[in-house]
Every structure is written in C-alpha cells, then in structure tokens.
C-alpha cells in the first residue's frame, strides 16, 4: 500500500489522465449537440501521428500540438460530412473510421522510416503546461455550454432539434461545428499523449483511451467537470496498475493491465442508472421528418 500512496503515483495519474480528459471534453461537445462520435479513438490516433511528425519537422512540441489539433479538426470534418450531412449511421461510421485510422496511421508511420530504422524520440513538454492546457480547455468548454447563447443552442440541438430549427438555427451547421470542434480536441489529446512525457509514437499508441473517454462522458452525465474527474480516476487506476506490476505477487500482470478499464466500467454501470442522455443523441435530423 505504501508503494501506491506516493507523490510519484499521483504525478503519474495526472500525466495518464491528461489525454483522456481532453478527449472526453471533445466528445462531450459533440454528444451534447446530438452526434455520437465513436471515431474518437481513431481521431486520437491521427492526432498523435500528426503531432509526432509535426514535432520532428519543426523541432518544437508546441507545433506538434497544433498539428494534432488540425488533424483532429480534419477528421471531424470527414465524420461530420458522413454522419450529419449524408446522415450515415453514426455507430457504424464511427467504428469504421476507428478501424480505418488504426490501419492508416500504422501504414503512414511505417512509410516514414525504413525497415530496421528506429524512429527518433521527439522533444517533449513537461507536465505543467499540459495541465494548464487541460484547465483552459475545461474552463472554455464549461463557459461555452453554460454561459453563452451558442452553448445553449448546441445543447438544445441534442435535446430538441425541431425546436431549435423552428427558431431559425440550422441543425446541420450546429452539429457539424460541434463535431469538428470535439474532434479537434480529440486530435489535440492524441498529440498531447506523444508530445508529452512519452515523446514517441508507436502503433496504436492510444491503447483504447478514446473508448475510455467515450465511457467517461456517460459517467459524467455530460458535465465537463465530472468528465475531468472521471479521467483522473482512470489515470489513478492506470498509475496504480503500473506500480503493482513491479511488486512481488502471483497475480498475473494482465489483471493489473485490465484494472483501470474494469474500474471505469464499474463506475459507468453505477452512474448510467441516472444517465441524462441527450434525447436526440445519434438521431439524424431531417427537417419536417417524423
């Protein structure tokens, strides 16, 4: 127990929670508008690769974060075109995009280096500026959703799109902007993962963190502060399992690897009973439709 309750464990928990928190805030924006973006994991992968390559090209991780942000916005544009404009099934589209992203990022990464060549490490940011970014994003999302007209329209688009349309707002535009903004944050989250203390891109570097972020939005009942708190819980469990793997025990290490995901699922099961799911989530909007 003394091994777990240390400042090093807390620091590791915060570091591991950072990309999950930013991705969850991005997903929260799109879901509040009525768009279920299951392509979150894939968007994080594209953002991570873009951040890595941009950092190598520029020599500064700050431009790497910008590259991840832009890559995420581009992914959001593609997803919005398919899910909002074309009105393709949001669940199928998101899953297909994530599968595509896993293969595409692996291919692009492998094409950047010859066989046997070790990919270089990149300059990385310390944890302090990354924490500041999370706090700024949290404050911005909270202010947008609770203190602005745009935020009220966005939330209403996920609850009663017909009423919003009757007031003269274009639901496809609102949902497209929300999807692009949410995906941009997901891309930023991926870039923060590789441009932070990790300093390296590897195949499937996100390791399911996008799926955790999706679960945390439900856990948080679509509230920004609770989403960040849930990400910290996941980071704490992840840091704990890393510590426990280094202790003498007969428990298989796979059990420790599953610990943060199991805790997240259990928390989700408890919170989902009181879920405040947006009424029009994943429901395509058709003007004049029934």
TrEMBL record:
<keyword id="KW-0472">Membrane</keyword>
<keyword id="KW-1133">Transmembrane helix</keyword>
<dbReference type="GO" id="GO:0022857">
    <property type="term" value="F:transmembrane transporter activity"/>
</dbReference>
<keyword id="KW-0812">Transmembrane</keyword>
<feature type="transmembrane region" description="Helical">
    <location>
        <begin position="33"/>
        <end position="55"/>
    </location>
</feature>
<dbReference type="InterPro" id="IPR001851">
    <property type="entry name" value="ABC_transp_permease"/>
</dbReference>
<keyword id="KW-1003">Cell membrane</keyword>
<feature type="transmembrane region" description="Helical">
    <location>
        <begin position="251"/>
        <end position="270"/>
    </location>
</feature>
<feature type="transmembrane region" description="Helical">
    <location>
        <begin position="122"/>
        <end position="145"/>
    </location>
</feature>
<feature type="transmembrane region" description="Helical">
    <location>
        <begin position="62"/>
        <end position="85"/>
    </location>
</feature>
<dbReference type="GO" id="GO:0005886">
    <property type="term" value="C:plasma membrane"/>
</dbReference>
<feature type="transmembrane region" description="Helical">
    <location>
        <begin position="91"/>
        <end position="110"/>
    </location>
</feature>
<protein>
    <submittedName>
        <fullName>Nucleoside ABC transporter membrane protein</fullName>
    </submittedName>
</protein>
<feature type="transmembrane region" description="Helical">
    <location>
        <begin position="177"/>
        <end position="200"/>
    </location>
</feature>
<dbReference type="Pfam" id="PF02653">
    <property type="entry name" value="BPD_transp_2"/>
</dbReference>
